[in-house]
UniProtKB/TrEMBL annotation, chain A:
InterPro entries: CitD, Mal_deCO2ase/Cit_lyase_ACP. Belongs to the CitD family. It is found in: Cytoplasm. It comes from Fructobacillus broussonetiae. NCBIfam families: citD, PRK13253.1. One of its GO terms (molecular function) is citrate (pro-3S)-lyase activity. This is Citrate lyase acyl carrier protein. Keywords: Cytoplasm, Lyase, Phosphoprotein. Its main location: cytoplasm. The keyword Cytoplasm applies.
Automatic annotation (TrEMBL), chain B:
InterPro entries: CitG, CitX, TriPribosyl-deP-CoA_syn_CitG. NCBIfam families: citrate_citX. The keyword Nucleotidyltransferase applies. It is an enzyme of class 2 (transferase). Keywords: ATP-binding, Lyase, Nucleotide-binding, Nucleotidyltransferase, Transferase. It catalyses: apo-[citrate lyase ACP] + 2'-(5''-triphospho-alpha-D-ribosyl)-3'-dephospho-CoA = holo-[citrate lyase ACP] + diphosphate; 3'-dephospho-CoA + ATP = 2'-(5''-triphospho-alpha-D-ribosyl)-3'-dephospho-CoA + adenine. This is Probable 2-(5''-triphosphoribosyl)-3'-dephosphocoenzyme-A synthase. The gene is citX. Belongs to the CitG/MdcB family. It comes from the Bacteria.
Amino acid sequence: MEIKQTAMAGTLESSDIQIVLSQGSNGIEFDLTSDVMKQFGDDIKQTIEDVLKAFKIDSAMVKVVDKGALTPVIKARAITACQRALDMKDQPQWEVL
Amino acid sequence: MSLLENVFAGGETVTLDSVLENREWRSNLQKQLEEKHPHDTILAIKLNIPGAIKNSPALKQLFTAGWRIFMARLSFWPVRYVKVLKDRVTGPEGFLVVAGPITEVKKEAIRFEQHFFLGRLFDIDVMAKNQDDYQLSRQALGFSPRTCLVCDENAKLCAQTQKHDLEELQTAVNDFYQEYFVKDPVIPAWDKKAVVNAALFAFLAEASTTPKPGLVDPASVGSHNDMDIFSFIDSSISLEGYFGSCFDAGREFHGSDLKALLLKIRPSGIRAEEAMFIATDGVNTHKGAIFTVGIFLAAYGYASRNYQDPSLSFVLDVVAQMGADLVAKELAQESVHDMTAGKKQYEEYRFTGVRGEVAGGLVPLEKVGLPELRRSSGDTNARLLNALMHLAANINDSTLIKRSKNPEIQKKMAEYSQKFFELGGADSDAGMAYLKELDEAFIKENLSIGGAADYLILTALVGRLTGLI
């Protein structure tokens, strides 16, 4: 599947993860920043890659800023990012102050 | 965890998706605040509650307690914006914009998280538009990372490795609630202004609560034809200075014989009665409450004199020590002059009245009024009515006895109260209808529960100081 638009999911709050998906040209490329890079960097990448595979995305630029998110959170954020990138889900309309 | 005291009781389950969506909502709101207030510091304050239930009546009480304390700590800086959302299913939270330097504000937040009794349950994010990092971290300021709810390890690592199961984490949250509000309530060491405001709130809250059987409230003068709600407003306002001097007397007291602290505030008490009579054109609106609240405030001032948060039982122990001579020496003394209702009843029935209550350490406040306020659901009026009716059934009310001229009236009062709670209390239509009937019946018989009303003021005062209301 082709990524139709750059999409973001998640926040930079602690215990969260922010994932930005955009069009790639060379398979799945990661740009990962994490507080727990050494211990969990590979796990985080693997979790996101599995979700991308499930959405049949085989080419994407994946920018990730992890703030210590747990695996279920990483998975949920990745799913939302894919849905938004593939136009399967509307971008959220937040209230304006 | 017993159902009654379970902090999660009455809470709604949320999904991971709704929690995650709420985070995006919050992050968006924060960005908007940064854009609107580019030179100020933005704060997002929320509870840190593991599991699927993130909000409940008890969790709201915990949030309110911490929010109030933190607001008082921030009063140093001008506040540009306040938004509190206590009812969100994803948990109570609030936002603030203050005109203070981000590092100083963050340090204040960390101090709160580390030192306030409930601080561990709070999560305060501090950010500013001109800040490179999205949110200023503890480590950036040289503080250690947050510790876990259960053990002393780094909270992030415990979460990442799932070291504790959910039940263990929820039990830890519940324990915070038990320790702060239930077992022996913790009263934060407030400054004078906050204490005076809490006392004034308590007096006005009691007067405003409606319908109270036989008592003055905004809808009725009850069985008191010589006063109305405005007498109570005037009377309350006239006591502001008195609250502060009792509190000061406690904070500044040195010595081991606490009876001397009572003697020290007595002249203020006499002046407070004078101020009340002047304000009400000579009507006694608050004589009992001047006595009990004044002593309570002095005791609390003393108990918190080193800015340590005292427990309620410690404050009440000071109250009892202050009042140790009240019954044996004063009430028992032969005195034909100045025959107050209390003294008269002591002569007739050996009831020790308000002096006995103080000497006994105001037990119904701790055992009846405050627990009922904590457990009651509904709005503030309903909660205060429930506390009042529970108190009325469990004390010897010298006003009620004086007016009925028969101590057996207390038994009847207990029956009225029981029926009220069987009907569902003040948070039900049937309970409220019954209360209105009772009010009319009391007015017809010229009855009033002034003693319970005094205890309701104390209950509202401690409720406000702890954050229950």
